[in-house]
Design brief:
Elements lengths: L7 E7 L7 H12 L3 E7 L5 H10 L4 E4 L4 H7 L2 E2 L1 H6 L4 E5 L2 E5 L2 H12 L8 E5 L3 H12 L4 E6 L2 H8 L6 E4 L9 E4 L10 E2 L20 H4 L3 E2 L2 E2 L10 E4 L1 E2 L6 H8 L4 E3 L2 H16 L6 H9 L3
Parallel strand pairs: 1-2, 1-3, 4-6, 7-8, 7-10, 8-9, 10-14, 14-16
Antiparallel strand pairs: 3-5, 5-6, 11-15, 12-13
Helix pairs in contact: 1-10, 5-6, 5-10
């Protein structure tokens, strides 16, 4: 039954997308900030992003979040890019501006806010190991670099892929998984390793190779970016996480992600999943659209308590 209130229309576009938590998150943001919006899901054909996005905005839509497999399609479709989108080559938020469309990438902001503000981890001066060289890694690197770590090393099974990504960002080191060393302050998993279990993805990256994915999980093919795995977890040297604060860009509402479980078993100082990143990147998208920054703590608490 309608309450008679005119609501601005927003949506998350992807394929598949029915499982997305974004409508629940934005509904809570809207209630908290007294914004009259409606937020739904939009499933587009795999070859039909441009047509679906165009139809949505032609029909009065006010903003789109973009999830797999369309983040690069969105990057090509928009008129202009913010700095993070330009650097990462992926768009997860579309903001209409006059007769143009601005493509933004809020994943990195979401990650940094969760690490520093919610978890209290110190990025400035830290030695950071980033696992993976796909879209999720590219999406978070601009904001991660701005946080001031002493070192960021990008490790990937295919070293040439890591070198290619690192070349786009000043000061990054790239290596294979076998050469990444140890003694890291923070280890970030931006691969689809956790997809082997029931883990869900952070960022607006809610993919379903088995469930959801973080960042742009269309980039994470098993053959390109993943080494041999056991029970869905990367075949990593055990010592790479010893004493480190570990973070999985994926999340799981019912149990630790496979990466977090593995890290905990091998001496991680602490481990967290990417639900907070998902919520924080959504909060930044909401701010871009509505001009109001929503509070996120109650949303995190509500989703953690919700049934998976």
């Amino acid at each position: 039954m309608s309450d008679g209130i005119a609501r601005d229309q927003y949506a998350v576009i992807g394929n598949p997308v029915a499982h997305s938590l974004s409508p629940r998150i934005h509904a809570m943001f809207a209630a908290e900030t007294a914004q009259a919006i409606s937020y739904g899901t939009l499933t587009a054909p795999l070859d039909g992003f441009a047509a679906a996005a165009g139809e949505f905005f032609d029909g009065g839509g006010r903003g789109l979040n973009v999830t797999v497999p369309f983040k690069q399609d969105a990057w090509r479709w928009v008129t202009r890019h913010d700095a993070a989108a330009a650097a990462s080559g992926a768009v997860n938020t579309i903001v209409p501006e006059d007769d143009a469309f601005r493509g933004c990438n809020t994943d990195g902001i979401g990650l940094v806010r969760d690490l520093s503000e919610n978890l209290g981890w110190t990025l400035a001066g830290a030695r950071v190991l980033l696992l993976g060289a796909g879209g999720a890694a590219r999406g978070v690197l601009p904001a991660l670099r701005e946080a001031g770590p002493a070192e960021i090393t990008l490790a990937n099974r295919t070293e040439s892929r890591a070198l290619e990504v690192a070349a786009r960002f000043d000061g990054l080191r790239a290596c294979s998984l076998a050469d990444m060393g140890e003694g890291w302050d923070i280890v970030l998993n931006a691969t689809s390793a956790s997809m082997g279990g029931p883990a869900l993805g952070a960022g607006t990256v809610e993919t379903t190779e088995t469930k959801e994915g973080a960042g742009d999980l269309s980039q994470f093919s098993r053959s390109e970016n993943l080494p041999e795995r056991a029970e869905g977890v990367l075949a990593l040297p055990n010592t790479c996480v010893a004493g480190a604060a570990c973070y999985d860009l994926f999340y799981n509402l019912g149990a630790p992600t496979p990466f977090c479980a593995w890290a905990d078993q091998h001496g991680a100082r602490v481990c967290a999943d990417g639900l907070g990143m998902l919520i924080e990147q959504a909060a930044e998208a909401f701010r871009l659209w509505r001009g109001v920054p929503p509070a996120t703590r109650k949303v995190r608490e509500a989703l953690r308590k919700a049934d998976p």
